[in-house]
Amino acid sequence: MKKLMPALVALLLTLACSLTGAPTVTPTAIPATPTAAPPTDRPIPPTAVPPTPTPLSPVISLDTAGRLSTFMSLRQADPVRALAFSPDGSVLASPAAEAMEFAIQLWELGSGSLLRTLHGNAAIVWDVAFSPDGQLLAAASSDRSARVWDWRAGSLLESLPLPNEVASVTFSPDGQTLAAGGVDEWPIAAVWTYAVGTWQQQTRLEATWNIPALVYSPDGQSLVGGGTSRNVLVWRTSDGARLFSLYHSGQVTSLAISPDGTTIAAGLCDATDVNQQCTRGAIWLWDLRGGTRIDQLPDFPDWVEAVAYSADGSVLIGGSRDGTLRFYATSDLRPVFVAQSPGGIGALAVSADGRLLASGGGSGEIHVWRVEP
Fold first, then answer.
1. Which residue of 46, 176, 190, 352 is most buried, as measured by CB atoms within 10 A?
2. Are 311 and 357 in contact (CB under 8 A)?
3. Which residues, at least 6 apart from 240, have a Cβ–Cβ distance to it below 8 Å?
4. Rounded to 5 degrees, what are φ and ψ at 5?
């Protein structure tokens, strides 16, 4: 029986495999390697090149001043008393009376449109200034206040009450101090300084009559202001000590300090006729370090209402009431360019990057200048 067992097992396996429905194993076919497509002569489309951004205009300098021209004109209803660029150069601020309200207009320079109007002053706004970080805008007004705005939001942050008319405002270069100049108790004038943020008064610097012009030195160590009394005073900011008193032949309405901090430029009327009409405007130049007069530029037919330096310090710019713009090389004070700003000049401003110049005057016209390539 044991000999028959292997044969029986083999027979049973053969029968099982022959039954209907038994699974069968089909071999899987291996796909053939695809044949590469023959090359064609069709060209590959080029990669798109992004458009070239609009090039920035050249910086205003000794070499480029002669190519300045206006590329934008704005208009407000009343005379232009002050102008200020935001630190990034995208917005220009100008005080204006709008519908019998005293306001500040903010112009968007990319489009030339009015971005926003800041309301709240009850009398003429004489001066405006942006903080160095561009967050704040300060305004000086005849309504006995210096106001501080979050200009992007259009909200008033602080109104600093003062005893009389306020004519000028400026921030220190580090943005930590706001200075406001104006009348205290006639004929006494003063400059008040405040800590930015807390708005606590820090110092009171005494002068006479009024303070229509006020400017910090680039290093923040000096504050220069005055003008109505014909005196321009220089104070040391660390302790408020008066360093110099600079006397002029006429009232000073504008001040600028060279970017290297060595020279003060003062715009004034240098001579008048019997009717007290200005017959000659001038820029007087002073050594900030020693308080001595360097020179004078009596080339203007009317009162020099505004002075400014190019951002690189190579050019001094003066503008008079009749609209005359004169540019001088600071290296030797030779005239390098003369232009006319229609509508007169009551204010000038140079953008922080040195590429734009704004001028405006009695007609309410504002002209924005740039160097043509």
1. 190
2. no
3. 203, 205
4. -65, -45
Lookup: tokens for 278: 């200005």
Angle at 164 between CA 320 and CA 200, to 5 degrees: 105
What the block records as the tokens of 223 is 């504050």
Intervals of the chain under pLDDT 70: 1-54, 98-100
> 269, 280 in Cβ contact below 8 A?
yes
CA distance 336 to 322: 19
Identify the structural domains of the chain with CATH numbers, from first to last: 69-371 (2.130.10.10)
How many whole angstroms separate alpha carbon 347 and alpha carbon 251?
16
Own/partner pairs, 23-29, CB within 8 angstroms, 24+ separation? none
Alpha-carbon torsion (336, 340, 341, 344), positive or negative: positive
Quote the CA–CA distance of 131 and 148 in Å, as a whole number: 10
Strands 137-141 and 91-98: unpaired
What is the pLDDT at residue 73? 96
Residues 123 and 16: their CA atoms lie apart, in Å, by: 113
Query: What is the rounded distance in angstroms from the CA atom of residue 97 to the CA atom of residue 368?
Result: 20
